Amino acid sequence: MTLSTDPTMAETLLADRVRTARSSEVRKVFMASQKRGVISFAGGAPYLGVLPFDRLAASARRIMAGSGAVSLQYGASQGIPELRRHVCALMELEGISADPDDIVVTSGSQQALDLAARILVNPGDVIFAEAPSYAGGLAVFTGYQAEIIHVPVDGEGLVPEELEQAIAAVQTTGRTAKGLYTIPNFQNPRGINLSAERRHQIGEICRRNGLLIFEDNPYGLLAFDGNTRRAIQPDFPDITMYFGSFSKIIAPGLRLGWVLPPAGLYSHFVNASETTLLNPPVYNQQLLCDYLDNPAWKATLDESRGLYEKKGAALVEALEQAMPAGTSWIHPTGGFYLWLTLPEGVDTGSLVFECIERGVAYVPGTAFYADGRGSNELRLSFCLPTIDEIRKGGAILGQLFREATEAGTACAAATDDRPRNHPGRPSKTS
Ligand SMILES: Cc1ncc(COP(=O)(O)O)c(C=O)c1O
User: Tell me, what CATH number does 231's domain have?
Assistant: First the structure.
C-alpha cells in the first residue's frame, strides 16, 4: 500500500499526543555542536576514555564464541537473571533490598521512564517535577499528555512545603495528580542533592496524598567523595518506582537501565516492555555482566569520579575568571552538571547558536522547564571535554555573556534616564 507522500496530508494523521509534543531543544543544540572543533558542554555524555577496551573486546569475542546462539537469540522480557542480580547488588549500596525477580531491565532508564508514563498517565494527569528538571523526563510525561507542574527547589533540593501547596492547588481544580518525578542525586540539570530529611518528608507527603514517586537515579554512584546516599525507595517501596541506569557509570552505548516498581505494577511494566521492545538485547547484557563480574570495574568508576571532580573544579575556576557580575552557579559535588544563572535579561536561548559559532555548546535553561521559564539560565555538562577545553570553553562563554550583559545594560541605560545609585558588582555564588 502506498500512503500519500504529501507531508501535510501525513501530518493531518498524527495522533493528538504527538501534535502537542515540542521538538527536543537539546537535540537541536547537539546537532549543531557536532561541527568539528566545537567544545561541547551540551550532552550528558560520560567520558569513556577510562574504559578497558581491550578487556571488553576480549570479553565480547569470548561471549560470542562461547554462547553466540544465545547472545543473538530473543531473550527474557525482564532481562537476563545474571544482570538482574548485579542490579540488586548495586542498589544495596543505596539501602535498597530487592530480589532479581522484582527488576525489569530496559533499554536505558529512558525506556523505563517511558514505560512508567505509558502505564500510568492519562491525558490531563498532573506530574510534579523539580524546577528545573531533566528535559528527557519531562518530554516523556508531556508526550503522554500529562501536565507538568514544577515545584521550587533550593540548595537542599525540592522544597516539601512547596510540594504540599502545589498538591493542594491541583486538588481544588479536581484534576488527577499521579506522582512526583524527582532526581534526588546530582540532579539533572542543577547538580544538587535532595537532603535525607527531605527525602523522608517528601515520601510522607506523597503517601498521604496518594501520589507515586518516580525516583530517577542515574548519577547516585557519582559523588566526588565516593559516598552513596540512601534512596527514597527503601522507606517508601509501596509508592516508589526506582529507575537506574548503566549509562553514566559505565557506557550509554550499551543502552541498559532498569526499573524497580512497586509490586503491584511489576507485571504492567513487563507487559509494556514486551510491546515496545520484546526484550533488552541479550548480547549487551552478557557483555555488561562479564564486565561487572570483575571487581576492577569499581576502580574504573573511581577513576571516572576523580576525573569528573577535577573537570568540575576546572570549570568553576574558568567561570570565576570569566563570567559577568551577577552570574551565579552551584559548585558541583558529583554527577555531570553545573547550572548557571545569568543576570535577568540575558537570553541564553537566543545566544546559543552564536556561542556554537564561537566554538562552545551549552543547553539553554528553557529546555528544562515545561512552562517556558529559564531564559537566563543554562546547563553545562563538564564530564566529556578535556581540562584544557574546559578552560578555553569557559573563557569563550564568559566573553559572550559579558558582551551580552554589557549590551543589555547599555540598552537599559538608553531607555531609562531615571537617576540611580551605582548598583555595585554583585558577587558570584559557588
Ligand atoms: C536524569 C536522567 N534520567 C534518565 C536519563 C536517560 O538515561 P539512559 O536512558 O541512558 O539510561 C538521563 C540521561 O541523561 C538522565 O539525565
Answer: 3.40.640.10
